[in-house]
Predict the 3D structure of the following.
Amino acid sequence: MRYDTSVVPLIQRVLLPTDLTEEGRSAFAHALIVALIAKAKLTILHVSDSRDESWADFPGVRDTLERWRRLPQDSERTDAVTRGFSVQKVRMVHDDPVESIRTFLKTHGTDLMVLATDQHKSGVPWLNRSVAASVAGRSREMTLFIPKGMEGFVSLDNGSISLETILIPVAPIPSAQPAVHAVARLVSGLCCETGTITLLHVGDEDAMPQVVCPDIAGWRWNRETRSGEVIEIIHQVGNEIGADLIAMATDGRNGLLDDLRGSHSERVLQESTCPLLTIPADGFITAVL
């Protein structure tokens, strides 16, 4: 099966919830580069219980794109529009950021949400509790989690993309097929020329579920089978191969809070040394993969 780049665009709307702090800057870089390359609409959503906080200390979109040499120096606001993507900044005053984000998603939706996470708090730093990640699950949106203190695969300094090694855990339920297709679309869309995608099954080799791996020019697929505790093996293999990204399909049968309290994706996120992309098996995005 050869990957077809003529299919319907995977990402047309990107949402970046942020607290405007230093910890969110790497997530900003990832959201911005995806929106730019996909020619999507980027919404930067700031929720606060105060009207006094300023955007001034957060990286400016045009300043960043100029530094990345994606826009000319002293560019105008319309220059971004001519490149096919747009940016809006939204501020919501509310004492519950989680509820505000859910309300925004219910009204506007998104194709990809990018969240900075604090692994030690099991959620987003400014939300301070594990229900923060539940925003992603309840909305059933594809979500890219960027762990605090990690640059990820997009450089905030120059906008370069370093995405060459990807790990996809494979289990009977949920099927890893949405994650496989999402990764194929991602690396093709970001114009990543070469790399390796490893499919990892924890269990007996003959019990590894079948998935269809599309042909991607310059990329190869590996299949790996290990025995042991699932989360430990995922981290072990991820460290061995130097994964730049882990991509996982998630089961939407439970609400996000229940999903993340004991789910594999949440446990992987807690100890991850690289970004984590989650793709809800029952989400809208799966229908277009």
Remarks:
- Residues 13-147 form a domain with the Rossmann fold fold (CATH 3.40.50.620).
